[in-house]
Known about the structure:
mainly alpha; 2 domains; 10 helices; 78% helix
Amino acid sequence: xxxxxxxxxxxxxxxxxxxxxxxxxxxxxxxxxxxxxxxxxxxxxxxxxxxxxxxxxxxxxxxxxxxxxxxxxxxxxxxxxxxxxxxxxxxxxxxxxxxxxxxxxxxxxxxxxxxxxxxxxxxxxxxxxxxxxxxxxxxxxxxxxxxxxxxxxxxxxxxxxxxxxxxxxxxxxxxxxxxxxxxxxxxxxxxx
Length: 192
């Protein structure tokens, strides 16, 4: 079977599963099992539990759901609102102080949660209305939240770095050490 045909069929069946309302895990899993049977025969089913067990027992990947859990705790605990109020009291009188505070809080969230989407969504819900009501330009408000939210990819502990370390068999600690200085520098550049 041609590679392009397999690719089109894979995406077609995946899209069909999603359109039927199947959960994402069942759509991906069903398509993977179906196409492994079609391409390699029934003997390919013996590989699936072995691969699943190896992935579940990998200590590097164990950190990913824990960071997602931490991000949910941060989002629902109200700590973001308290951090934003603190930054408003500290930097509210400076020119662009709330934008600076937003970037700093996004940096703190990136360091606590490891996921960039948490900082972007949380600060988008909290900081945008507050900045717009205080007369900030909507471009500056959205830009500071968007730019600060992207720092979660670079600032350790980053889920993306953990997945990269797993796939390339690099040291997670070395990747984290390599991300600290660029993360701080980019934060300072965003503030400046």
